[in-house]
Amino acid sequence: MVNTQFDDRSLHEECGVFGIYNVQEAAQLSFYGLHSMQHRGQEGTGIVTSDSENLYGHKNEGQVRYVFNDANLSKLKGDKAIGHVRYATQGGSGLMNVQPFLFKHSTGDFGLCHNGNIVNSSQLREFLESKGSIFQSTSDTEIFAHLIKQGRQTNFLDAIKESLLYLEGAFAFLLLTKDTLYAMRDKNGLRPLSIGQLDNGYVVSSETCALDMIGATFTRDILPGEVVMINQEGIHSSFYAKDVQHRMCAMEYIYFSRPDSDITGLNVHTARKQCGRMLAQEAPVEADIVVGVPDSSLSAAYGYAEESGIPYEMGMIKNRYSGRTFIEPTQAMREKGVKMKLSPVRSVVSGKRVILIDDSIVRGTTSANLVAMLKQMGALEVHMRIASPPIIAPCFYGVDTSTYDELISANMGLDELCEKIGADSLYFLSEAGLQKALNNKGLCMACFNKNYPTELYSKLEEANKDGKC
Amino acid sequence: MVNTQFDDRSLHEECGVFGIYNVQEAAQLSFYGLHSMQHRGQEGTGIVTSDSENLYGHKNEGQVRYVFNDANLSKLKGDKAIGHVRYATQGGSGLMNVQPFLFKHSTGDFGLCHNGNIVNSSQLREFLESKGSIFQSTSDTEIFAHLIKQGRQTNFLDAIKESLLYLEGAFAFLLLTKDTLYAMRDKNGLRPLSIGQLDNGYVVSSETCALDMIGATFTRDILPGEVVMINQEGIHSSFYAKDVQHRMCAMEYIYFSRPDSDITGLNVHTARKQCGRMLAQEAPVEADIVVGVPDSSLSAAYGYAEESGIPYEMGMIKNRYSGRTFIEPTQAMREKGVKMKLSPVRSVVSGKRVILIDDSIVRGTTSANLVAMLKQMGALEVHMRIASPPIIAPCFYGVDTSTYDELISANMGLDELCEKIGADSLYFLSEAGLQKALNNKGLCMACFNKNYPTELYSKLEEANKDGKC
Amino acid sequence: MVNTQFDDRSLHEECGVFGIYNVQEAAQLSFYGLHSMQHRGQEGTGIVTSDSENLYGHKNEGQVRYVFNDANLSKLKGDKAIGHVRYATQGGSGLMNVQPFLFKHSTGDFGLCHNGNIVNSSQLREFLESKGSIFQSTSDTEIFAHLIKQGRQTNFLDAIKESLLYLEGAFAFLLLTKDTLYAMRDKNGLRPLSIGQLDNGYVVSSETCALDMIGATFTRDILPGEVVMINQEGIHSSFYAKDVQHRMCAMEYIYFSRPDSDITGLNVHTARKQCGRMLAQEAPVEADIVVGVPDSSLSAAYGYAEESGIPYEMGMIKNRYSGRTFIEPTQAMREKGVKMKLSPVRSVVSGKRVILIDDSIVRGTTSANLVAMLKQMGALEVHMRIASPPIIAPCFYGVDTSTYDELISANMGLDELCEKIGADSLYFLSEAGLQKALNNKGLCMACFNKNYPTELYSKLEEANKDGKC
Amino acid sequence: MVNTQFDDRSLHEECGVFGIYNVQEAAQLSFYGLHSMQHRGQEGTGIVTSDSENLYGHKNEGQVRYVFNDANLSKLKGDKAIGHVRYATQGGSGLMNVQPFLFKHSTGDFGLCHNGNIVNSSQLREFLESKGSIFQSTSDTEIFAHLIKQGRQTNFLDAIKESLLYLEGAFAFLLLTKDTLYAMRDKNGLRPLSIGQLDNGYVVSSETCALDMIGATFTRDILPGEVVMINQEGIHSSFYAKDVQHRMCAMEYIYFSRPDSDITGLNVHTARKQCGRMLAQEAPVEADIVVGVPDSSLSAAYGYAEESGIPYEMGMIKNRYSGRTFIEPTQAMREKGVKMKLSPVRSVVSGKRVILIDDSIVRGTTSANLVAMLKQMGALEVHMRIASPPIIAPCFYGVDTSTYDELISANMGLDELCEKIGADSLYFLSEAGLQKALNNKGLCMACFNKNYPTELYSKLEEANKDGKC
C-alpha cells in the first residue's frame, strides 16, 4: 500500500471500483470500501446509489474522507451503490473525469465507473461522434455509455454485451441502474474484480481488502470476459466474448494492491515475500542488513532476509503525517538536508553493508536519492535488489508507468544504471523468477517484455501522455 | 441587489452569464464580472477559457470568491472566456448542473452556459434520446449542445441557428469555441444580455453592472432573436428568427438586477424609484415615515417618500455579516426574539405610523413577519405598499416564483391578504402604473397577468418544481 | 454599520463587549449578540461562560460566524456569559490578544474583556512587573486582572473598585466569575455600555442593537464611573469614582455604531440624519442629486437631501459579496478599472452635479478615489460634504484614527484638501453644528479639537501605533 | 512511530520540544523538526522566533502541517526559534494550553515550552498566587515563568536555576529570549533532550529524528540537571542540581519515540528488536507465524521472529489514509464488521497459529479486539507476547497511562487477563529482560514497579486526571 500522491516514484495505479447490492446503508459501506482502496487513486472519488426508484450521486476532487461527510452520505439513499477512486493525473484533468458518471435517460438513468484503459478509444469516439454523440470528459467510461445507447439491442444486458465487443483494452466496469448492478471484466482479465457476500447482499470490488474492510466474505473473482448481473432474482452470469485468457497485470502483485488483498487466489504480501525469496536465490550478496523501502517493498525485504539469513532491519522510515496540504521543503531547505517522506535511520545503517530492496525502478531518480541518503548516513555499501524485472515498455492498460522516454531501463543497461544510481551492485528479479514467485499465474508482463495481449492502436512513444482511467 | 441565498422570500433569479473576447487575463476579469453578478445565483459558478489552442475549465458549487483562487484562475489560460453563476435550487441538483459545460468533440471542443429556461425541454430530450443522445445533467444547456451536434449543418454558426429554432422559451446563451465567442438571446428577449468594449476586446454580460465593474464601456443590448458572433475579424450579427418582439422580464427591474445595472436603456434604481413614485400617486396614505425593506426595496421607498413628501427613514436594518456558514437561530431562539437578517430600528419606528415599501409579495410569510416585527417595536400603524402588481401566476422562463399553489395572490384577494399579513392597509402597484414607471418598455408581465409570450408545454401547476436554469 | 475590514478608510472602532446573566443558552445568545456587533471588530472573538460551577471559554481569530459553531457553543455551558469582538490591527497582534481572557486562580477563576484604551498602561505594567507580574499579551485587559489580584482588598467588588482607580483612559469592562457578572465604565463615559432585561435575566452590551437582536428590553445606560454587579440577588450599583462626567465618544454617533443602536437615548440613524440636515443648512450648494457613501453615510445623505430639497439618489453601490477571502484586484486590474467594494452608478451620476456626503475624512485617499470614480462615470461636478468636523488629532481612547502624521486635516487646510481630493467644493460640519445635531449631549470631541478629557501620558505623535483595545 | 490520535490504545506521549539557534529560516526548520515529532502530540503546536530584536509567535490547535503555512511562517522572523507539539487531552483544554507561551516583560520578552509534568504544581501555584500571580492556563509551563520573575536573582541564568530548584517532576524546558536559547532537563533525566549542530548553529530536540530530518548532526544528550545556555558566545553548560541520576522514561523506548531516534545512545528500533529477542527467549511458544501490531510493535516482532526462527509475516495492516476528519463507523457499521485502523490479513493468518507481538497492554480492550479479529479471520491459535512488563501504576511524569482504575494489569492477574482478551497464551517481558534489552541504561520503570524517582505530592488514584504536559 503506497501513497502515490506523495511518492516521487513514477508508477501509478489508475483507479479502483466498488459496488454493493441489497445491503442497507449502501453509500456508507461504499465509503469504507473505497477508503480501503484509497491507495489506488487520490485525485477524486464518487458514489452513485439507487433506492430502486431514483439514482443519487455525489463526487468531487480529493480523498474519500474529504469528499464525503455524514451530510452528503445521508443523501445517497438506497441499498445499491457503485463507487470509484481516481488516480491523480499530472494534467489535473479535473472534476469532469471524476467518476461514477450519472447518465440521464428517459429509458432509465444509470451510473457507470471504470478501472482500466480502452486502447481503441480514439477510434470509438470518432465513430460515435459521427453518429451525433458529444462528450463531456476525456474518460473512456463515457464511450461505453454512448455505445450502449447507440446500440440497437433493446434488452439492457444484450446492449451491454454488444457494446463490450467494441472495446479493446483493459477494463473492470460497474454499472448501476435503478434496480440492477452489472459488473464486467475485459476478456484478458487485465484488471482485477472480485465478488463477495454480505448478509443477503453482494459486494464487488477491485481488491479483496475492501471486502474484508466491511466484513464481507469473498466468493470468487469475476472471470475474464464475464458479465455479472445482480438483481432481485440473484446473480446471473454470462460472457460477452469467447476467446478469453488470464492476463492479470503483474504490477498489481508487485506494487499496486494492498498486501492484505488476494488476487486470483494469491495473497499480495505472500507473493511479494516470494519475490524477495526468489531474488535472494538469484542475486545473493554478502552484507550486514536487509532494508526495504517502505511501504510497498517491505514484504519482499522480509522474504529476502529470511532466504538469505541476513537480518532484516528498519533502516528507513516513512513519515506518516505528510499529506496533500503539506509545505514542501524549498530547494534551499533540501540542500540543508531536510527530508520529508523517507528518512534513513542513521544508527541502523551507519557502518553497515546494506542490501536495499525496492519493488521496481521506473525513472531511477528515487533509487539514486535513496542510495545517496543511505551513504550519507554512513552505510558502507548499498546493494540494490529489485523484486521485479526491468520495466522496458509502457503500459497501455491503465497503469501510468511514465512515458517510454522516461523509463530508465528502456534506455540504459544494468551496469550503466547501477553506476547512475550510485549503488555498489544492482540486480533485478528475472521474468522466470517472477513467474515462479507468482505461482505461474497467467499474467500480463508486457511492461517487462513488450508482449502485449491486445492490439495497441498507438505507438509505444505515445503511451501515458494523457490521464485516462 | 439582494442576497437570495439568505432571504426567506421565495423569488429567485436563475443564473447570470458573462463572456469576454480578446482581453488578456480573461479568467481574472471573468472572476470580477461574475462576482458583480453574484446576486443572480450562489449555488455554483464556473469559467471556461480559450487560448486559441485549447479550452480550460473550472467550476464547483459555491460562491465566486470561494470557488476561484489565484491558483485555479492562473490555470485558466487565454484571452477568451465565458462564465456563469448559478442559483441554488431547493433540490440541490448539485455539481452536474454547474456551468459552463465543456463539451469534447473531434471537430472542436466548446464551452456553453445559459440563463433562462426552455419550456419544451422534455420534448427535445425525448427526441434527442431517440437519436442516441444521453445526458449527464438536468440542464437545458446540454440539450442545445446535442442539437448543434445532431444537426446537419456543417457550418457552426448555421448549426447554432438551426438548433435555436427548436428551442422554445427564455434564454441567453454564451458559447465559446477555441477561437469564437457566440452570444444569443431568445426571440422574445425575455432574459437580458448586453455587450460592451474593453480595450480592443469585447465583453458580454447578463447585467451591465459587470461591465462597469471591470471598466468596460457599454455598447448595446443584444436584440431578441439575435446571434452575435465574435472572432478575430470582429463582431458579426445575424438573427435566427424573424418574428421577434421585446418581452423583457419585468422582474429584472422590480427585484433581480442590481440597482446600478441598466436594462434596455433604463437604470434599475431609477426604474424602481419611479415605481415608488407611481405607487405614492396610486395609493397615498397618511403616515409619519416611509420605510423600505432592504436592499431591493430601498429605491422604491425613496421614490414613494419624495412623491408623498413623507420622510424616508431607516426603519429596518439588514445584517451585513450573515452568510451561508451561519448558525441559524433555533426555533427556541426565534421565540426568544432572535433576529438574523432584518431588524427593525426601534427608535425610528416606535410610536410612528409606518408606510412599509416592499417590491413584491410571493408567499406572504416574509411580509407577515415584517409587519409583526414593526408592531412589536412600537409602530402604531403599518401600511404596506408593494411596488409591483400581485403575482398570480408562475414563471416558466427561468424565475423561481415558487409553485402555483404557494403564490398567495393567486389564492387570496387583497383584503384577505391584508388581514393575513396583519397590515393596516395594503396596496399593490397597478399593471398600468408599472408599465408607466418602466417607460412603457416591451415587457413580459405573465406572472401578473398570465399573458405568456410563448407556448408553455406544461401546466401552471407544474411550474417551478424542478430547478432548471 | 460599516465593514471596517474591507473598507480602505483608516478609521477603526476597537472592540465590542456583550454579557448575559441568568438566561439559558447564554453562549448561543452571546453568539447572536456579538454577531450584531461584528462591525465593531472582525479580527477575533471569544465567549466565556459559567454554569455556576466552572468557567468555559472559546476564542479564536476571525469573525463570529466562523469562530463559533454548534459544536463549540454547546461546550460553553451555563446561563452566564461574557463575549467580545476585536478589531483587526495592522500588526496582526494575533491570538494572544483575542478576548475574553480566562484567568485561573485558586480563589476563583474569572473571565474578563474590554472595550477602550488605558492611557497609563505602560506605567501600570512597569509597576506590576516590579511586583512580579508577567504578561502574555499586549492588552490592557491583562493589567486590570493583575491589579485586582495584586490588590489588598479581600472582597472582590472592593478589589475591582480599588483597581479601577489606577486606570486612566477609556474603558467598558465585563468581568465574569462563576457566580457574578460585573460591568463598569470609565469615569468620563467615553465608551458606551447599556443594560437590558431578557426574561428573568440581564444583558449588557456595547450597543443596544445587540439587545434588540436577541429580544431583550433596554433598561438604561451604565453611568460614567459606575460598577454594576449582577448576581443571584439581582443588580447592585456603586461608583468607583466621584468626579464623573459625560464624555461619550462623538465618533460612536458619526461612524462606528449601527444605525439601529441608541446611545445615551439618541438613535444613531436619527443623529446622523440630523448631522446631514445641519450640514445642508451650513453648506448648501446648487446641484442635481445627493449621494451618500454606503453604508455609514446614507443617513446623513437622506438628511441633507430632505433639508435641501435636492433628491437623494443611489449613486454608489456597495458590493455585498466581498469578504476576507476575496482575491483583490492586482494593480494591473485596478488600472483596467476593476472596482471591488464601491461602484458608482453610471446612469444615475452621468451628466449630474453631485453632492457627495461622507461621514468623515481621515487620510483623504478614499475621498480622492470616490471623486475620481464619479467624474469618470460622467458626474459634471462633485461637491463633497462631510457630516463631521475635520479630524485634527488622534484618539487615545480606543479608536484607531491612524497616526497623527497620517491625519490629512491635521496637516492641510480646507482649500488645499479640496484640491487634493479633486472635488469642486468641500465643506465639513462645524463643531457647533455637530453639537446641535447630537442634542448637545456631553461628548468627547478631542479628535476635532484636542480637548482630551484625561491626561495622556504620551505624545500625540505616538498615538495609534500599537493595536490595543 | 504511532499515530496516537487515532489509536484506541490509551497510552499517550505528552509533547515534544524543538529549538534552533543561529540558523537562517529558523521558523521553517522548526516546522520540519516539529513535523518529524508529530507523533508526540497532535492537539496543538506553536513556534516562537527571535530576530535578536523582537519575538514573534504563532500557535493554534491542530497538527503542524495544518497550523502553519507559508504565510504565517514567513512572519516568524529570525534565526532563533523554539517550538512545541502538544498531545491531545480528553478534556480538550484548548488553545490556552498550546505552547510555546510568549511572556511580555519590560526586562525582555521570552518564549517558553515544555515536555513533562511537574508533580508539585498545585503547591507552587498556591505559593505564587499568594504573591499576586495569576494564571491563564492549566499548564506547568506558566508556573516556571512566574517563578523566574518572582525570584530575586537579577541575572537571568541564575533566576532560571533558582526557579528550577522549586520544580519537582519531569521536564525538558526550552526558553528563548531575544538573544539567548536555554535548554534544561530535570535532575532525573526523565524526559529526553538532545543537542546537535547545523552549519554554525545549534539545534535542540526531544528526539534525534528531528535532527536527522533537517540535516543536523547529533552532538550529545543534555544531562540530567543540566542547563545549557546558547548565545552569541556559544554554548555554556551548568547544573542547577547536584544530586542527579539517569532515569530516562522506559516508555520512550517501548512505545513513544520514533524508531529512527536514538535515546541515550541507543537506537529505538534496535532497542525494541532486542526486547523482542529477549521475549522470544523468555516466552517461546510453538507457532507458525509471528505478527506485530503496526506500527510500534513491528521492531519487537522482527526480533522475536529472528530469535525464534518462526517466520515474520505481515498479518495485520494499518490503514494509512485515516485521519482526524474521518467519519468513524457507527456501532451498526462496526457490528457489520467495518474496520478502520487495523485490519488482519485473512490469507496470512487463516489456518495459522499466530504469535501476536504488542508493545504494551494498558486497558486491554485493544488486545481483546485484535485477538478476536485474528480468530475471526481464521487464526487457529493466538499467543500474545508483550514486549514490556505489565503496567501496574500510573505515570506522574508526563505520560498519560490512563488512570489507576483503568490499568488492567493493576487490577488483574496474568491468567485472568489472558482469558479476558481471549488469547491462547499471554506473556509479558520481565523487568530484568527489559533492563537487559535496553543495555542496562538508567531507567524510570515506575509504571512497572511503582519505584518513582521523585516524591509524588498526590495519590496514585489521582494521576492522569488532568491533561498537563
From TrEMBL, chains A, B, C, D:
It holds the Pfam family GATase_7. GO terms for molecular function: 4 iron, 4 sulfur cluster binding; amidophosphoribosyltransferase activity; magnesium ion binding. [4Fe-4S] cluster binds at residues 249, 395, 444, 447. SUPFAM superfamilies: N-terminal nucleophile aminohydrolases (Ntn hydrolases), PRTase-like. The keyword Transcription does not apply. Its EC number is 2.4.2.14. This is Amidophosphoribosyltransferase. It comes from Erysipelothrix larvae. The gene is purF.
